């Protein structure tokens, strides 16, 4: 699986569905496999960062360099798992975990003030000065009970996100799960 010259078997599809928590249907996985094979220009069975940059939506993303660190060398199964966080069917928790990984650029399981500042700089460009970004971030962390030199683990990161934009979203997620 993953080589452009090979075909997906029913077993491969089911294995990928399990790996991505059944967020994609059989047809969606087949479509993703076709896209994966298009991106895997050398038919190596994995996609390099350069191959990922051939996707215009990805290349134009202000966080593309951070995302590239996460996607370089993905095989098909990991490609689908990575994309699953972008699915409408993905839980808020799955989406937050991906966001946390984007902020945690060194992969140490902690997000520092500077990690957040770098992402804010990538997102806002020159529209906001470094000083303004630092002031806003310092105040936000203070309101959440953290200092500038604090390291945020995933649970801490979620707490900060909840303060700024997610309370309604988390409630909607609970209702959605109860109805399914």
UniProtKB/TrEMBL annotation:
Source species, domain of life: Eukaryota
The name this protein goes by in its record: Calcineurin subunit B-like isoform X3
Residues of the EF-hand domain: 27-62, 91-126
Gene name of this polypeptide: LOC111278803
InterPro entries named among the record's database cross-references: EF-hand-dom_pair (IPR011992), EF_Hand_1_Ca_BS (IPR018247), EF_hand_dom (IPR002048)
SMART domains on file: EFh
GO molecular function: calcium ion binding
Keywords from the UniProt entry: Calcium
């Amino acid at each position: 699986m993953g080589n452009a010259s090979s075909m997906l078997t029913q077993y491969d599809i089911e294995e990928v569905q399990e790996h991505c928590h059944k967020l994609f249907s059989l047809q969606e996985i087949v479509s993703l496999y076709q896209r994966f094979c298009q991106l895997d220009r050398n038919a190596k069975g994995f996609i390099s960062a350069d191959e990922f940059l051939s996707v215009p939506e990805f290349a134009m993303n202000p966080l593309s360099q951070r995302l590239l660190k996460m996607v370089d060398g993905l095989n098909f199964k990991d490609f689908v798992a990575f994309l699953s966080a972008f699915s409408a069917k993905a839980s808020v928790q799955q989406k937050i975990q991906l966001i946390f990984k984007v902020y945690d650029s060194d992969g140490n399981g902690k997000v520092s003030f500077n990690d957040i500042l770098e992402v804010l700089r990538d997102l806002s460009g020159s529209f906001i000065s470094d000083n303004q970004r630092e002031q806003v971030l310092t105040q936000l962390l203070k309101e959440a009970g953290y200092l500038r030199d604090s390291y945020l683990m995933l649970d801490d990161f979620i707490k900060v996100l909840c303060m700024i934009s997610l309370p309604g979203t988390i409630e909607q997620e609970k209702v959605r799960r109860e109805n399914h």
